[in-house]
Amino acid sequence: MTTSPFQANLESAISMDEADELRAFRHQYHFPIQSNGEPYIYFCGNSLGLQPKSTAEHVLQELQDWQNLAVEGHFHAKNPWMPYHELLTNAMAYVVGAHSNEVVVMNTLTANLHLMLVSFYRPTKDRNKIVIESDAFPSDRYAVQSQIRFHGYDPNECLLGLMPRPGEVCLRKEDIGAFIEQHGSSIALILLGNTNYYTGQFFDMKQISEWGHARGCMVGFDCAHGAGNLPLNLHDSGCDFAVWCNYKYLNSGPGGMGGIFIHERHLNQNGIPRFEGWWGHNKVTRFKMRDDFEAIPTAEAWQLSNPPILSMAAVSSALKLFEEAGMERLRAKSIQLTAYLEFLVNSLGKNVIHIITPADADERGAQLSIQVKNADKTLYDQLTKQGVIADWREPDVIRVAPTPMYNSYQDVFQFYEILKNALGDRHEQK
Ligand SMILES: *Cc1c(COP(=O)(O)O)cnc(C)c1O
């Protein structure tokens, strides 16, 4: 038996916080406040990230420029609106591990998923299936079902779900490979959440892309729970496209804008089907309002409208903090922070609690999904009353996501104490 590097006491949590190079970043965020005036322990960054303190200033700048310059702001605002989205591209590409020409911040996640499906789901009589996780996020499921119908096919036949083995919750990598091998010739598109929203399982995107491509399938990922959570290396993964939102781990505000990744090999391809709008047109001639669409040779070709600057200002301030903190340092802290949570939760006794997220750090990000025997939502309500904001999934799972950007080891320790008390006599005494 290996000995754990962790201890279940406050002193060790404090000393880990003192050794944490990123500890100051927490002060750059607004935490929600309980009625007793204390901040909540916030573990819901996988659902809606906290507001950076710098965001108000970024948004105000645009409000002021609009107030003072009106239409002239397109060219003369402090950050001119015409090329505003370009301000975000390098930081966004950095966070998801892509080349700058492969990424653009636009629209919202499900809208972007539809646009990507237009380009990358091109069913034929013999190859018309889409593979998703059997427990895919509902919006993704609705999007692909409706796209299958849009092309005149039947989702009951064309939508394949990857199912875990009986009695298991996560998918085994080798089973994904075997599935692709078996059904590959009829699969048009493999679309997985790169980090499953429910189990927290992180998939090997590179391997899955290789398997899919070897069988002639397109491969895309929904990185809603991956972007800002862990390095994604989208370019090197070789996947064809990816979509994500910026409001979860990336803290850009409720309903904040999404992002897309399109692998370089698909850029500047004349034949690619795409829904188009004026913001995807050559910037030099855009305002000549010519009849024929001339695509920008980057992922920007998929842009439709002139973008919402106020929303983009929030993305801009949020991404700056990721550049400052650095994805490598965030990931290093995240691995340790989540391992610490795992250690503490497991010490409560496996008869009471079962972590369904993979135990291997390479197969997960920040989140642990904790199944509590015989629990119902009253347990979750009790945690909230005690100052913890996490996330409850029926019937019995608490999703807890300590984010390396703004959570501390003390947050994790306090959560453990609150959970232990809430479990009361369910807690197995050793
Ligand atoms: C959060 C999330 C969404 C949300 O989609 P919106 O279009 O931003 O409302 C979709 N898919 C997954 C996998 C998610 O985690």
Give structural notes:
The mean pLDDT is 95. This protein has helices spanning 10-19, 55-69, 73-76, 86-96, 109-120, 138-150, 155-158, 173-183, 205-214, 234-237, 309-325, 327-346, 377-385, 409-423, and strands at residues 29-30, 41-42, 51-52, 103-106, 129-133, 159-162, 187-193, 218-222, 241-245, 258-262, 353-355, 368-372, 388-389, 391-393, 397-400. It is of the alpha/beta class. The chain is globular and about 70 Å long. The chain folds into 2 domains: 10-53 and 327-429, Alpha-Beta Complex (Aspartate Aminotransferase, domain 1); 83-323, 3-Layer(aba) Sandwich (Aspartate Aminotransferase, domain 2). 44% of the residues are buried. The strands form 4 sheets. The chain has a 7-stranded mixed beta sheet, sandwiched between helices. Strands 11-12-15-14 form a 4-stranded antiparallel beta sheet, covered by helices on one side. Strands 1-3 form a two-stranded antiparallel sheet. The chain contains 14 helices and 15 strands. The structure holds pyridoxal-5'-phosphate. Pyridoxal-5'-phosphate is lined by residues 108-110, 137, 139-140, 193, 197, 222, 224-225, 245. Pyridoxal-5'-phosphate (PLP) binds at residues 108-110, 137, 139-140, 193, 197, 222, 224-225, 245.
Give a brief outline of the structure:
This protein is an alpha/beta fold.
How many structural units, i.e. domains? 2
CATH homologous superfamily of the largest domain - what is it? Type I PLP-dependent aspartate aminotransferase-like (Major domain)
> What's the CATH C level of the largest domain?
Alpha Beta
Largest sheet: 7 strands, mixed
Beta-strand residue fraction: 5-15%
Estimate the global geometry from the Cα principal axes.
globular
How many helix segments? 14
